[in-house]
Write a structure and sequence with these properties.
flavoprotein, 26 strands, oxidoreductase activity, FAD/NAD-bd_sf, 5-stranded parallel β-sheet, alpha/beta, FAD/NAD-binding_dom
Length: 421
């Protein structure tokens, strides 16, 4: 048996650990177009700001590959698949044979059509990889100016890093407020006040129509007629599945690579996991891409176990985030809005808690400056516990295990969980 994994982030690590749980002998080859040991991508903003060294970003110890008997091909780009012969073709012509293959190629930046953008060769950046942060760091510094297109997680983490380097930052987004995919308007207002206080400037409800260049400066023309001049522009609208390798094969692709509940694709023996894969969303009740690190690891681990010939089912997941900006911590999970859900809110000047409940079950929450024990709420969502009798406690800034029903509390203390399907 020859295992091959394309990608080197959370899903790939999960797969290696899943395989080695049951198969310590057969060879694993990892192919990555990045030249780095596996690292945690959410930390690149701290690297940009200079508060985290590269060594401190590693996702597993330096001896991880050796201890797991993994041949790792770093800085090697896979350019095509031969799913009949069972081979991965690299850019240098080398062919890697496999019996079981995992596609863990992650996501890539979504670049919206902006007039003039393609004609500019320097000063335009994206922000999802360590190399992106390194390149941006070389151009950033006190007195410089930047426009960030996108007020989501990627854009705001880039903004935080740049502000700490002394860069004057303006953020532009078509949405009416920051983090529109994970916060409601009231929560966003709290976050925006905090960010404005740190020096960020915003333009909401407007798109960037064109970008031109004059004497090295970028001029971003907004749809409302505003023009912003800056030294650099960061495109941070979002990410899309990086499924180019599968496009020329018979592997079924929707928005992401379609997988079953074993993380196997439409071709037997080929699996997909992480930001490139579609799988079951417990709350939406349908398959979709959920590009977050915990899901990527669990999907990869599930794929790895199944690649050994054993069987485990991926139970599904949902969106959840734990993030902070300039010391303002927040956790969110599940749905932000749902017309059929009841909303319960506990808002103060410096904190915000919101619960969404449907059919007596928690289907989403937002917690800002009230993040302690958020895992309790996530567990209630996974286990589909009736929360009718504990809403007041769950709305508090620090809910405790004591709010849970006795049987659920005992399950939590013993590490047990109930799957949704």
């Amino acid at each position: 048996m020859r295992y091959c994994i394309i990608g080197n982030s959370a899903a790939a690590v999960g797969a290696i650990e899943g395989i080695r749980l049951l198969d310590r002998e057969n060879p694993i080859t990892v192919i990555s177009d990045e030249p780095y040991h596996t690292y945690s991508r959410p930390l690149i903003s701290y690297f940009l700001a200079g508060t985290k060294e590269e060594e401190g970003m590693i996702y597993r110890p330096k001896d991880f590959y050796r201890k797991n008997n993994v041949e790792v091909l770093l800085g090697k780009k896979a350019v095509s698949l031969d799913t009949v012969a069972g081979e991965v073709v690299l850019a240098d012509g080398q062919k890697i044979a496999y019996d079981k293959l995992l596609l863990a190629t992650g996501g890539k930046p979504f670049i919206p059509p902006v007039k003039g953008l393609s004609a500019i060769n320097e000063g335009i950046f994206t922000f999802i990889k360590l190399d992106d942060a390194k390149e941006l760091q070389q151009h950033a510094g006190a007195g410089k100016t930047a426009v960030i297109i996108g007020a989501g997680l990627i854009g705001l983490k880039a903004a935080e890093g740049l502000i700490k380097l002394g860069v004057d930052v303006t953020v532009v987004d078509l949405a009416p407020h920051v983090l529109s995919s994970i916060l409601d308007e009231k929560a966003a207002q709290l976050v925006q006040r905090h960010l404005v206080g740190k020096g960020l400037k915003f333009h909401f409800g407007v798109t960037a129509d064109a970008i031109t260049e004059n004497d090295g400066k970028k001029i971003v023309a907004l749809a409302d007629g505003t023009e912003i001049t800056a030294d650099m522009v960061i495109m941070a609208v979002g990410v899309v599945p990086n499924h180019g390798l599968a496009k020329d094969s018979d592997i079924e692709i929707n928005r992401g690579i379609v997988t079953d509940n074993h993380m196997e694709t439409s071709i037997k023996g080929i699996y997909a996991a992480g930001d490139v894969a579609e799988n079951y969303d417990l709350l939406a009740g349908e398959n979709r891409v959920i590009p977050i690190l915990p899901n990527a690891y669990q999907q990869g681990n599930t794929a790895g176990i199944n690649m050994t010939g054993n069987e485990v089912v991926y139970p599904g997941g949902f969106a959840k985030n734990a993030i902070g900006f300039f010391g303002l911590a927040m956790t969110t999970a599940g749905l932000v809005k749902d017309k059929d859900a009841e909303e319960y809110v506990n808002a103060a000047d410096d904190s915000y808690v919101k619960l969404l409940v449907k059919d007596h079950k928690l289907v989403g929450f937002i917690r800002i400056n009230a993040v302690d024990r958020s895992g309790i709420l996530t567990g209630l969502m996974i286990d589909r516990v009736d929360v009718s009798g504990m809403l007041e406690s769950l709305l508090s800034v620090e809910p405790g295990l004591i709010v849970l029903p006795a049987d659920t509390r005992h399950s939590r203390l013993e590490g047990g969980a109930v799957t949704w399907r």
